[in-house]
C-alpha cells in the first residue's frame, strides 16, 4: 500500500502539470495561487457575493453630514472628489470624502 | 418614412459596411466619473435614444426627420431632452450610500403624444413622462403677458385667450416613484408585454409592479437563504418574455438561467425551466464560476430564443432546449490566458451587455480597448470593430480589427498585452428595425450606421 501512494501522487502531479500546459485557465490559476497562497478555500463562493451585497457601506456622523450638506446646498452636484485618504480636524467630512472602503478579497502580500 | 433602403429588417452584421455617423460627449482625457455612461436604450420605434450616466442624468436623443434641404442630417440623433433622474442619497439607518448611477432605462410603448420611460438606480425606480409643448395661450383676462396679475376692477372687456405657436419645449416630469421595495441593488427592470406591469430585480429578489401603483409591489422570486452563510448565487439579470406576459427569465452568478411562469404559483421560486450548460469537471478552475456568471440576458424579438453574456462568450439558447445553448460565440477567448491579472485589476467582474438586431439575425456585445463584436448568426461570421475618435470622419467606414494572440503580430493587428482594459464597452444598443447602433465608450456615445444610407 505504501508503495502505491507515491505512484498515485506522481500520476496526479503529472496530470496537473499536463493541465497547466494544455489549459491556460489552469495556468492562470496556478499563477494566482502562487501570488496569494491564502486565497479563498471556497473559490468564487460567498466572499464575492458578500462583497457585492455590501457595496456602498460607509460610516459617518449624521451631524457632520447634515452640516456639510447645508453648506453645499446651492452648489452643483458634487463631482468625484479627489482621493482623500485622511480626514483632518478642520474639515467636515461628507460621505463622498470618506476613504473608499473597498474590501479587497486578495490577501495583502504583507500578510504572507 | 421609416423603410430604409434595406427594407424593414435588414440582414445581419457582416455583409454590411458599418460607418461612423456621430459621436456625443467630451474629448477630454480627464473623464469625470459622473459622465460615464451606464445605460443605452432605443425606444420601440427607434426614433428616441436614451442614455443614463453615473451622475444620475438621463439624456434623450431624437432622430431628425428626413429633410430635403439637409440630406446629410437625415437619421442624425440630436439632443431632445435631458434631466436629472436620480440624486445621491444616504441611508442613515444602514450607513449605506445610495449611488445615483442609472443602472437601466426601459421605454414604455408609446400610447399617446407623450413618451414614457422607466429609469432606475440601485434602489428606486422612476417613471418619467417626456412631453412636448409647442403652443401657449395668450390673451388671458386676469394676467398680463408677463404674468403679473391685473387688477380685476380695471378690466372693462373680456377676451378669449388664443393659442399661439411657441418654440418647442420638451419637458420631463417624474410621474411615479417606486421606492423602498429593494434591500439589495437593482440590476434589471423589464416592462411586460401587457403594458401594465413591470418587474424589477435585485441580487436576491424580483418584484412585480403595476405602473399605476407605487405603494405596493409583489415579490415573485426570493432566493435569499435563511442563513446568509449559505448564499451561493445571486440574481444578475431578469427580463419578461416579449409576447407571453406570464413568462420571465432570470440569470444567476453561477451561469444558469431560470424561466418562470407566473400562472403556476404566486411565488416563482420553483422554475418552469432551468437552463445550464454542462461543465467538464476536469476543466474546472478557480475562475470557472466567476467567468460563467451571466451579466446580461435578452430575449430575441421573436421570443423563441434568448441570449446570455458571460465574461468570455455570448450564448444563444432555444427556449425549448434546456440542456445546452444552440450557439456559443467567443467574444475574446484570448483573455483566458490573462485571467490572473484580470482578477487582480477587477476586470473579471466587468458586466458586459448584449443585444439583438431587429430581425434576430445578428447579435452584438462589447469588449475592451473600445472594441465591440458582432456575430452574424446566419452567415456564421463575426467581426470586431472599434469605437475611436481616430476613426470618426463622417460616413467613414469602420475597418475590422484583429487581436493577435500568437507570437508574430501582423501589421494592423494589436497584441493582447497592448489592449487598454480601461476602455470597456459595456453598453450597446441596436435600433429596433434599422442597422443603426449606439455604442457607449466610457463617456462618449458613438452612433454607427450601415452604408446603404
TrEMBL record, chain A:
One of its GO terms (cellular component) is cytoplasm. Residues 12-32 have a biased composition (Basic and acidic residues). Its main location: cytoplasm. GO terms for molecular function: protein phosphatase inhibitor activity. Keywords: Cell cycle, Cell division, Cytoplasm, Mitosis, Phosphoprotein, Protein phosphatase inhibitor. It is found in: Cytoplasm. Transmembrane segments: none annotated. It holds the Pfam family Endosulfine. The keyword Cell division applies. InterPro entries: Endosulphine. Residues 1-48, 73-112 are annotated as: Disordered. One of its GO terms (biological process) is cell division. PANTHER family: CAMP-REGULATED PHOSPHOPROTEIN 19, ENDOSULFINE. Belongs to the endosulfine family. Protein phosphatase inhibitor that specifically inhibits protein phosphatase 2A (PP2A) during mitosis. Interacts (when phosphorylated at Ser-62) with PPP2R2D. Interacts with SNCA. Interacts with PPP2R2A; the interaction is direct and this interaction inhibits PP2A activity. This is cAMP-regulated phosphoprotein 19. The gene is ARPP19.
Automatic annotation (TrEMBL), chain B:
Gene3D superfamilies: YVTN repeat-like/Quinoprotein amine dehydrogenase. The gene is PPP2R2D. Keywords: Repeat, WD repeat. Belongs to the phosphatase 2A regulatory subunit B family. The keyword Repeat applies. It comes from the Eukaryota. InterPro entries: PP2A_PR55, PP2A_PR55_CS, WD40/YVTN_repeat-like_dom_sf, WD40_repeat_dom_sf, WD40_rpt. The keyword Repeat applies. It comes from Equus przewalskii. This is Serine/threonine-protein phosphatase 2A 55 kDa regulatory subunit B.
Amino acid at each position: 500500500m505504501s508503495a502505491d501512494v507515491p505512484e498515485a501522487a506522481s500520476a496526479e502531479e503529472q496530470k496537473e502539470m499536463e493541465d497547466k500546459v494544455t489549459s491556460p485557465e489552469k495556468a492562470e490559476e496556478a499563477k494566482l495561487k502562487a501570488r496569494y497562497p491564502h486565497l479563498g478555500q471556497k473559490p468564487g463562493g460567498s466572499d464575492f457575493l458578500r462583497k457585492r451585497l455590501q457595496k456602498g457601506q460607509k460610516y459617518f456622523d449624521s451631524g457632520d453630514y447634515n452640516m456639510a450638506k447645508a453648506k453645499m446646498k446651492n452648489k452643483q452636484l458634487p463631482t468625484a472628489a479627489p482621493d482623500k485618504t485622511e480626514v483632518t480636524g478642520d474639515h467636515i467630512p461628507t460621505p463622498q470624502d470618506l476613504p473608499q472602503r473597498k474590501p479587497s478579497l486578495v490577501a495583502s502580500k504583507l500578510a504572507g | 418614412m421609416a423603410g430604409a433602403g434595406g427594407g424593414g429588417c435588414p440582414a445581419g452584421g457582416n455583409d454590411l459596411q458599418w460607418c461612423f455617423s456621430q459621436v456625443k460627449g467630451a474629448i477630454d482625457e480627464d473623464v469625470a466619473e459622473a459622465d460615464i455612461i451606464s445605460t443605452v436604450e432605443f425606444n420601440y420605434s427607434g426614433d428616441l435614444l436614451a442614455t443614463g450616466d453615473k451622475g444620475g442624468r438621463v439624456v434623450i436623443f431624437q432622430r431628425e426627420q428626413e429633410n430635403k434641404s439637409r440630406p446629410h442630417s437625415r437619421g442624425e440623433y440630436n439632443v431632445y431632452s435631458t434631466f436629472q433622474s436620480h440624486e445621491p442619497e444616504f441611508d442613515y439607518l444602514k450607513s449605506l450610500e445610495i449611488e445615483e448611477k442609472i443602472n437601466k432605462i426601459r421605454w414604455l410603448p408609446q400610447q399617446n403624444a407623450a413618451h414614457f420611460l422607466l429609469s432606475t438606480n440601485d434602489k428606486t425606480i422612476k417613471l418619467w413622462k417626456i412631453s412636448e409643448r409647442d403652443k401657449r395661450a395668450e390673451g388671458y383676462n386676469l394676467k398680463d403677458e408677463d404674468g403679473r396679475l391685473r387688477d380685476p376692477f380695471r378690466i372693462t372687456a373680456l377676451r378669449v385667450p388664443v393659442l399661439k405657436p411657441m418654440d418647442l419645449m420638451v419637458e420631463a416630469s417624474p410621474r411615479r416613484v417606486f421606492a423602498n421595495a429593494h434591500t439589495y441593488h437593482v440590476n434589471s427592470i423589464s416592462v411586460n408585454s401587457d403594458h401594465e406591469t413591470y418587474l424589477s430585480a435585485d441580487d436576491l429578489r424580483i418584484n412585480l409592479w403595476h405602473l399605476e401603483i407605487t405603494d405596493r409591489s409583489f415579490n415573485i422570486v426570493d432566493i435569499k437563504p435563511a442563513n446568509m452563510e449559505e448564499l451561493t448565487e445571486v440574481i444578475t439579470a431578469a427580463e419578461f418574455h416579449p409576447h407571453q406576459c406570464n413568462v420571465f427569465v432570470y440569470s444567476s452568478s453561477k451561469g444558469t438561467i431560470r424561466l418562470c411562469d407566473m400562472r403556476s404559483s404566486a411565488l416563482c421560486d420553483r422554475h418552469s425551466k432551468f437552463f445550464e450548460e454542462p461543465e467538464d469537471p476536469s476543466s474546472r478552475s478557480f475562475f470557472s464560476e466567476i467567468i460563467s456568471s451571466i451579466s446580461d440576458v435578452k430575449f430575441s424579438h421573436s421570443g423563441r430564443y434568448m441570449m446570455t453574456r458571460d465574461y468570455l462568450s455570448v450564448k444563444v439558447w432555444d427556449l425549448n432546449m434546456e440542456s445546452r445553448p444552440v450557439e456559443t460565440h467567443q467574444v475574446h477567448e484570448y483573455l483566458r490566458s490573462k485571467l490572473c491579472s484580470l482578477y487582480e485589476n477587477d476586470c473579471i467582474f466587468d458586466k458586459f451587455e448584449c443585444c439583438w438586431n431587429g430581425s434576430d439575425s445578428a447579435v452584438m456585445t462589447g469588449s475592451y480597448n473600445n472594441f465591440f463584436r458582432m456575430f452574424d448568426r446566419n452567415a456564421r461570421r463575426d467581426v470586431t470593430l472599434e469605437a475611436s475618435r481616430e476613426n470618426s470622419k463622417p460616413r467613414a467606414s469602420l475597418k475590422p480589427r484583429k487581436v493577435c494572440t500568437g507570437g508574430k503580430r501582423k501589421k494592423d493587428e494589436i497584441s493582447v498585452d497592448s489592449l487598454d482594459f480601461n476602455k470597456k464597452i459595456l453598453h450597446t444598443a441596436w435600433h429596433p428595425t434599422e442597422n443603426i447602433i449606439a455604442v457607449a465608450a466610457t463617456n462618449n456615445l458613438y452612433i454607427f450606421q450601415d452604408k446603404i444610407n
